[in-house]
């Protein structure tokens, strides 16, 4: 028989912490719903939820009427929200001088994908906020607690200290005002929100180190005093509307995530990063999970966006709008320049056509070793200025400097691209680092990049036993040198993106002098043509200790009229996959994207690292069910917004002053500016001259278009699956 609050409270005061855990599970959604209603941000509301229960545990013995536990939580939550709003933003720890490299822990690829996925979710939240604002203030909290807090009218009445009849009538009036479509959107958006499991875990971990205050021996306060206080706070609560939502624009990109609530502004898309363990294949020291590093795989930290107000801090100086110019060097290297007048920072990024899905047969991960060795070919690495990353379908070298050092950055890029000889010492450093990245990815169920590489070996090269570690361990220096010379720098396949305060004419002259003399021969990546029919259900083994599931669907090129609709479909599906409670129980990291492909064919894909003992068929069936839901056009409100947002992003870089104004304090202006360059360079590299036409095409995408491409492309007869399982021990 389920115990009521009174019984549970007595058990807690008798030393039973598990009973408090039951109270947390019972009331956490209600507390979170109230916190969100007050401050307007889901993720800061999670922090307040944790603080509410910690306070409640510490002061539980001071509660005089255990029957009023729910109302008592209401008071605590409201007080914490009031304190939070008074301070404008939660306290943040400074990141120190190395903030650029410290914060850069997500893979850009993952970051870009998640930014857009979260944008889908937050556009819906913005719409819900607007719908709630249309209600009288007395009805907003009731609607929020009913749908987001999943409370009954009786529970809401007890929570707020109001009669059930009053709550019922408020809810009914709200429904009539919202009408069917508005209520349905609120129900679907708020009702689908799932509190992360770590909230409960964090609360109970802290509880284990706390001893509840013992009951006082003096005369208790009368219960009606607490009720009077709660009633006053209820009146104050419903009288305050939150006008300023947490927001922050990070790297400007096509594939992106926006996590907290979005304010719809014509000039920008706003976001925040929800960082999860993710693989960034970079140069650096060995990876140690949980520690900051400039290496490939790092555990990402939550980059939280503060609430902002009309009194936001002024910027040190006003940024000019980035002016985009393009030119081609005499040897065929393409350059895109984002000139920001008066900016002191300068970032130089080169994009090359060698990535995980470009590796030759039985040379898995060689692209990653080439990256490590290329950047080490210039000597010891200065991690404050130089780095690199291997992506699914390209490689990037990067220099971070300023208007005094940018010419040194050009010289470094010239050396990286000119084919300097590798050394045995560099290989001795690179190999352990690459292997450490794999180990980190295994531990954190973040094997998506390695799965991309394995997929390429299976589909393109017909190998069904993939040596992720083995091909790294067996690679010889001379073979790697030859492989780099043949594949890394290809004619008409190199793009450099420069952002910052360098005069465009000066930059063009210096780049022609420093990079235009590099000999680029006519080369193409070696690949085998797919001539035979691909088996729909592929199985392979690999030398990683994780089971990984992928499914792919052929899709047209960016020039095709269906591409924008399929791209948006991938964002919607990605959001759905990440938020689905059933999948969370079975998988670690799961994504949907459109950046997977062979030279002959591009694919929309779903990729998931599975938890131990997960039933693969259950995962497959659940993904199929979620895809099926995309056929419904009920998302029409936010699909239009997303389409226009992507169109704006493809048309021009963001307004830097707005970006800087809303960034978190623990993100430097340098980092924010450089991320704009990285992301814009990625779009230029991927879409090239078709960027303008693609921007126009995205603006016209409708819900009907999305439903149409789901029915035509994302179907079981188009689906190919790949299951990668650990190789049996020898």
In short:
The protein has 3 domains: 5-91 and 108-238, no CATH class; 325-515, Cytochrome Bc1 Complex, Chain A, domain 1 (2-Layer Sandwich), CATH 3.30.830; 537-726, Cytochrome Bc1 Complex, Chain A, domain 1 (2-Layer Sandwich), CATH 3.30.830.10. Helices cover 49% and strands 12% of the residues.
Question: Could you please describe the fold and organization of this structure?
Answer:
The chain folds into three domains: 5-91 and 108-238, no CATH class; 325-515, Metalloenzyme, LuxS/M16 peptidase-like (Cytochrome Bc1 Complex, Chain A, domain 1); 537-726, Cytochrome Bc1 Complex, Chain A, domain 1. Helix content is 49%, strand content 12%. The chain has helices at residues 5-13, 17-39, 42-58, 69-87, 99-103, 108-133, 137-147, 153-160, 164-191, 197-207, 223-238, 366-376, 406-418, 424-443, 448-461, 468-474, 477-487, 504-515, 563-579, 581-586, 616-629, 636-651, 656-661, 669-687, 691-699, 703-713, and strands spanning 278-279, 297-298, 323-328, 334-339, 345-352, 386-390, 395-402, 465-466, 495-500, 537-542, 548-555, 587-597, 602-610, 720-726. The longest helix is centred in the first third of the chain and has 28 residues, at 164-191. It starts with a helix and ends with a strand. Mean pLDDT is 76; it is low at 89-113, 213-281 and 284-315.
Strand-residue fraction? 5-15%
**Strand order in the largest sheet:** 3-4-9-5-7-6
Helix coverage percent: 40-55%
Structural class: alpha+beta
Gyration radius, in Å: 27 Å
The main sheet comes to: 6 strands, mixed
| End-to-end separation | 52 Å
Poorly predicted spans = 89-113, 213-281, 284-315
The coarse silhouette is: globular
How many structural domains are formed by the residues?
3
Q: Can you give the mean pLDDT?
A: 76
Helix count equals 26
Number of strands: 14
């Amino acid at each position: 028989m389920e115990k009521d609050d009174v019984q549970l409270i007595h058990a807690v005061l008798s030393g039973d912490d598990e009973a408090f855990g039951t109270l947390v599970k019972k009331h956490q959604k209600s507390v979170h719903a109230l916190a969100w209603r007050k401050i307007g941000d889901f993720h800061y509301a999670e922090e307040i939820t944790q603080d509410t229960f910690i306070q409640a545990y510490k002061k539980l013995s001071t509660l005089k009427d255990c029957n009023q536990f729910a109302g008592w939580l209401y008071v605590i939550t409201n007080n914490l929200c009031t304190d939070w709003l008074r301070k404008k933003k939660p306290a943040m720890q400074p990141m120190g001088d190395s903030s650029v490299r410290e914060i850069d822990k997500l893979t850009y690829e993952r970051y870009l994908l998640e930014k857009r996925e979260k944008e889908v979710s937050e556009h819906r939240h913005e719409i819900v906020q607007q719908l709630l604002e249309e209600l009288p203030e007395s009805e907003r909290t009731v609607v929020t607690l009913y749908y987001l807090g999943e409370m009954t009218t009786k529970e809401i009445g007890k929570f707020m200290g109001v009669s059930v009849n009053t709550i019922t009538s408020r809810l009914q009036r709200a429904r009539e005002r919202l009408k069917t479509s508005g209520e349905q959107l609120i129900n679907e958006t708020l009702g689908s929100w799932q509190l992360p499991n770590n909230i409960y875990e964090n609360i109970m971990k802290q509880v284990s180190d706390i001893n509840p205050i013992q009951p006082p021996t003096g005369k208790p306060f009368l219960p009606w005093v607490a009720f009077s206080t709660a009633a006053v706070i209820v009146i104050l609560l419903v009288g305050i509307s939150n006008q300023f939502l947490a927001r922050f624009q990070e790297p400007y990109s096509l594939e992106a995530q926006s996590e907290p609530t979005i304010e719809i502004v014509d000039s920008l898309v706003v976001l925040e990063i929800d960082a999860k363990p993710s693989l960034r294949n970079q140069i650096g020291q060995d990876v140690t999970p949980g520690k900051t590093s400039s290496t490939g795989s790092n555990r990402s930290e939550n980059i939280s966006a503060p609430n902002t107000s009309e009194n936001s801090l002024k910027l040190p100086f006003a940024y000019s709008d980035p002016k985009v110019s393009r030119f081609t060097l005499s040897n065929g290297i393409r350059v895109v320049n984002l000139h920001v007048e008066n900016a002191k920072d300068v970032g130089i990024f080169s994009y090359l056509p060698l990535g995980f899905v470009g590796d030759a047969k039985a040379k898995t991960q060689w692209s990653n070793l080439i990256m490590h060795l290329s950047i080490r070919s210039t000597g010891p690495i200065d991690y404050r200025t130089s780095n690199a990353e291997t992506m699914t379908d390209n490689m990037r070298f990067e220099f971070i400097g300023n208007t005094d050092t940018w010419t040194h950055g050009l010289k470094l890029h010239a050396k990286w691209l000119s084919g300097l000889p590798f050394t045995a010492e560099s290989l001795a450093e690179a190999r352990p680092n690459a292997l450490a990245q794999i180990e980190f990815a295994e531990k954190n169920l973040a094997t998506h990049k390695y799965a991309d590489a394995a997929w390429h070996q299976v589909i393109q090269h017909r190998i069904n036993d993939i040596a992720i570690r083995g091909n790294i361990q067996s690679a010889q220096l001379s073979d790697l040198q030859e492989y780099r010379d043949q594949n890394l720098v290809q004619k008409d396949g190199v793009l450099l993106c420069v952002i910052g305060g360098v005069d465009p004419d000066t930059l063009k002259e210096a780049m022609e002098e420093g990079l235009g003399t590099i000999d680029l021969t006519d080369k193409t990546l070696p690949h085998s043509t797919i001539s035979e029919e691909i088996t729909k259900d592929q199985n392979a083994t690999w030398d990683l200790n994780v089971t990984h599931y992928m499914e792919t669907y052929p899709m047209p090129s960016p020039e095709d009229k269906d591409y924008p609709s399929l791209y948006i479909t991938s964002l919607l599906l990605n959001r759905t996959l990440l938020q689905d409670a059933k999948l969370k129980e079975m998988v670690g990291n799961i994504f949907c994207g459109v950046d997977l492909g062979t030279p002959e064919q591009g694919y929309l894909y779903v990729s998931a690292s599975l938890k131990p003992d997960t039933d693969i068929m259950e995962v497959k069936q659940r993904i199929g069910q979620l895809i099926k839901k995309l056929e419904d056009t009920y998302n029409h409100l936010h699909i239009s917004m997303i389409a226009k947002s992507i169109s704006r992003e493809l048309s021009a870089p963001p307004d830097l002053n707005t970006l800087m104004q809303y960034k978190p304090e623990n993100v430097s202006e340098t980092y924010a500016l450089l991320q704009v360059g990285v992301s814009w360079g990625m779009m230029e590299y991927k879409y090239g001259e078709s960027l303008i036409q693609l921007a126009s095409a995205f603006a016209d995408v409708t819900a009907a278009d999305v439903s149409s491409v789901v029915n035509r492309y994302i179907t079981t007869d188009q689906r190919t699956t790949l299951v990668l399982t650990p190789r049996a021990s020898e």
